[in-house]
Amino acid sequence: MRKLVLLATALLVLPSGAQVFNLEQDRVPMAPLAGLMRFHTGDDARWSEPGLDDSAWPLISSESDWSTQGYKDYGGFAWYRFKVILPPGHAQLGLYIPPIRTSYQVFADGKMVGSFGGFPPNASVYSLHQHLVLLPPEHSDRMEIAIRVWHWPHWAMYIGGGMAGPPRIGDADELRRWMTLQDRNTFWELTAEDYLALLNALYCIAGFALFLMRPKERLYLWYGLAGLFFCGRSLLAAFAAFHDLPVYTSELLGNGIVVAGFFSFVLFIWMMLGRRGTVWVWVSVGSVALNVMMWTLPPLLNLPVSAGSAILAVVNLPLTLGPVAMLIQGVRRRDPDARLLLFPVAFNTLANWINDGLWALMTGGHRWVEPYWAFWNKTFDWPFPFSLYDLSIAILLLAILAIVVLRF
Fold first, then answer.
1. Could you give the C-alpha distances from 202 to 187, 195, 224, 310, 326, in angstroms and in order?
2. pTM for the complete prediction?
3. Most Cβ neighbours (<10 Å): which of 19, 186, 350, 404?
C-alpha cells in the first residue's frame, strides 16, 4: 500500500515538470493557401506588378476550378492575385502549386519565379503535375504573388481551368517532403496500372519464350508482341502520371501502342483458330490505316477533343469487334479454345466500348456523365484502387496465358 501511494504521488507531480509543447513556435513550417483570391479573366502584363490596385477584381476560391465558380466552359487566359505575410528569420521559402491545366507562370513581387507549359501563339498543350517554385529571398514581410494561367479552350468543355486545389507556402524542404507524399499517393492510385503492366510483361515473356521453342508457330510471336505493346502502354501511363508531357505527343504514342497491341491480338486469334475469318484481318488493317490518318489530320483541322474522341471510338471498333466475331465462329465449329476465350474477350470488348463511349460523351461537354466516368475509373478500393475496366483486362490476360500454356 505504501508503494502504491508513492507511485500515485509521483504521477501527480510529473505533469508540473513536463515539456511544454508550443504550437506557435514548433508548428510545421508550411501552410495551405485555402481561401479567396482576386481573379480576372483576360491577359495583361501589368497584372503581375506589385502594388496593383486589384480591389475591383472578383474573388474566387483556390479550392476548386473556375468552371464551378461562375466561369463555366471558359478557356483562355486568367490571373490569380493574393498577398502573404511572412514570418521573420525564415529559411528558403517555396510555393507548392498543385496540378493546373494547361499552362501557368508564377510571379513574386513582380518577378517571374516559375513557368510551366506552353503559351499562345505557339502553345504546346501539357497536362501539368505538381511543382515547387522557390520564392526570392530578398523581400519585405509582405509578398504579392500573381499566377497567370492559360487553359486550352478545347479542354474547357469538360475540364475546369485554373486551380483545383489550394497552393501551399512555407519551408522549401518541407514542401519537397509534401510533394513526395503526393507522389506516393499517386503511385498507390496507379497500382492497378502497374499490376496490368506486370501481367502483360509475363504475357510477353511467355509468348516470346514459346516462339523461340517453336519458331514455326507464329501465333506465339503475335501473342508476345501483343503483351509487349500493352505493357508499354501501361508503363507510358505510369510515366505520364509523374512527368509533364505534351498531350499530343503522349496521346499519339499511347494510341499508336494500343492500336499495335490490338492488331497483334487480332492476328493471334486468327492464327489460333486456324487462320479462319480472314475478312476481319483486312478490316483491322483498314482500322489501323484510319488511325494513322486520324492522328495526322486533327492538328491540321484543329478538331475539338470531343470530335476526335467520337471518331476514334468508331475507327477502333473493328479492332475490338474482330476477335469476338472470330471466336463466335470458332464456338459454332466447336473449337475448345474459342469456347474458353469467348467470355473473357467479349467482357473486355464491352468494357472498351463503355470506356470509349463515356469518354466521348464527357469530352463533348455532357457533365452528367462525370459521376459515371469517376465510378468507371475507380470502382473498387480494396485491396487497391481498381476499376471494372482493369478487372476485364486482368481476366482476359490470365485466361489467355492459361490457354496458351495448355495449348503448348
1. 21, 11, 9, 33, 25
2. 0.84
3. 404
